[in-house]
């Protein structure tokens, strides 16, 4: 038996390659995890926005999960765009049934251009079924506001939100700081029920941020697959995304993707 670490992404496909399944698999590869995927939706998407969304029938999502479970047990997994309550329920019951570990939940809701990647009526299902299964939950600030029902305007609000989300059952929470005002550094706040840790970064003023959230959560997932602790995984993910934003590829005319090679070129 091989002991190659395997990571699974359960997410939507981004035809433009900067976010979703494509960003996740590129990140897994860069950090030394064998990547597998369960596609929940296909988006027609580029750096200018999302032009169309086709949800995969829930039976097909369940079949993809079962094919992986029957043959290839992942050491870690992440969820991204799940789109509907029925897909959330299918994914959650699969995670429970197979007792998957190292579950990273990125509660993707809205694309940078404003398109809805999670139906409004699915937010309750996310809170009820998936949040309690999350080993690490990685909301951005607007997502944390949706999940808590509270406005987040300062550091105290972010700490309170992290505690609230821990109360809903997520074991560890990282509230990402990308959406803080431009004059603020993009500090990511980690909370595990005991420790509150700030992961600092340097804000880069750029439009090349398509897929930052996906890439960050995928880097955490890859690191967990290779056996790192949650704190080590978040630390590497923060450096990985900082480098990926710092060396943009300038592809397309809108919100361009980040550079998934940059971290390896600098650190490996
Ligand atoms: N302009 C930026 N400069 C540096 N880091 C950033 C920038 N924007 C986002 N990040 C980092 O990228 C990751 C994703 O953050 P965020 O933009 O909040 O998530 P999302 O893509 O889900 O909206 C976080 O680690 C955040 O701190
Ligand atoms: C298929 C898919 N999944 C997720 C995102 C969110 O992207 P981001 O990481 O920039 O929040 C996206 N635009 N498309």
TrEMBL record:
One annotated GO biological process: thiamine biosynthetic process
Enzymatic reactions: 4-amino-5-hydroxymethyl-2-methylpyrimidine + ATP = 4-amino-2-methyl-5-(phosphooxymethyl)pyrimidine + ADP + H(+); 4-amino-2-methyl-5-(phosphooxymethyl)pyrimidine + ATP = 4-amino-2-methyl-5-(diphosphooxymethyl)pyrimidine + ADP
Pathway(s) where this gene product acts: Cofactor biosynthesis; thiamine diphosphate biosynthesis; 4-amino-2-methyl-5-diphosphomethylpyrimidine from 5-amino-1-(5-phospho-D-ribosyl)imidazole: step 3/3; Cofactor biosynthesis; thiamine diphosphate biosynthesis; 4-amino-2-methyl-5-diphosphomethylpyrimidine from 5-amino-1-(5-phospho-D-ribosyl)imidazole: step 2/3
GO cellular component: cytosol
Occurrences of domain Pyridoxamine kinase/Phosphomethylpyrimidine kinase (ranges): 14-259
CDD domains in the cross-refs: HMPP_kinase (cd01169)
Alphabetical list of Gene3D superfamilies matching this protein: 3.40.1190.20
A molecular function GO annotation: ATP binding
E.C. number(s) listed in UniProt: 2.7.1.49, 2.7.4.7
Group of enzyme by EC: transferase
Pfam families: Phos_pyr_kin (PF08543)
Keywords: ATP-binding, Kinase, Nucleotide-binding, Thiamine biosynthesis, Transferase
Similarity comment: Belongs to the ThiD family.
Name listed for the protein in its UniProt record: Hydroxymethylpyrimidine/phosphomethylpyrimidine kinase
Source organism per UniProt: Fictibacillus solisalsi
């Amino acid at each position: 038996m091989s002991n190659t670490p395997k990571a699974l992404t359960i997410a939507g496909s981004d035809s433009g390659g900067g976010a979703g399944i494509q960003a996740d698999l590129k990140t897994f590869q860069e950090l030394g995890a064998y990547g597998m995927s369960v596609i929940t939706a296909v988006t027609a998407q580029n750096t200018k926005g999302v032009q169309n969304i086709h949800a995969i029938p829930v039976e097909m999502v369940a079949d993809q999960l079962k094919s992986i479970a029957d043959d290839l047990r992942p050491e870690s997994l992440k969820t991204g765009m799940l789109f509907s309550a029925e897909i959330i329920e299918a994914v959650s019951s699969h995670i429970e049934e197979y007792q998957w570990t190292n579950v990273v939940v990125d509660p993707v809701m809205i694309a940078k251009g404003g398109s809805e990647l999670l139906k409004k009526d699915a937010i309750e299902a996310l809170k009820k079924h998936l949040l309690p299964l999350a080993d690490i939950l990685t909301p951005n600030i607007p997502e944390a506001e949706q999940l808590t029902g509270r406005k987040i305007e300062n550091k105290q609000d972010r700490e309170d939100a992290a505690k609230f989300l821990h109360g809903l059952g997520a074991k560890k929470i990282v509230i990402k700081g990308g959406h803080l005002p431009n004059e603020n550094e993009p500090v990511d706040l980690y909370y595990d029920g005991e420790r509150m840790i700030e992961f600092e970064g340097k804000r880069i003023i750029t439009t090349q941020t398509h897929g930052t959230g996906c890439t960050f959560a995928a880097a955490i997932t890859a690191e967990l697959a290779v056996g790192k602790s949650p704190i080590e995984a978040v630390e590497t993910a923060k450096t990985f995304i900082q480098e990926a934003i710092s060396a943009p590829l300038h592809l397309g005319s809108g919100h361009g993707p980040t550079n998934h090679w940059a971290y390896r070129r600098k650190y490996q």
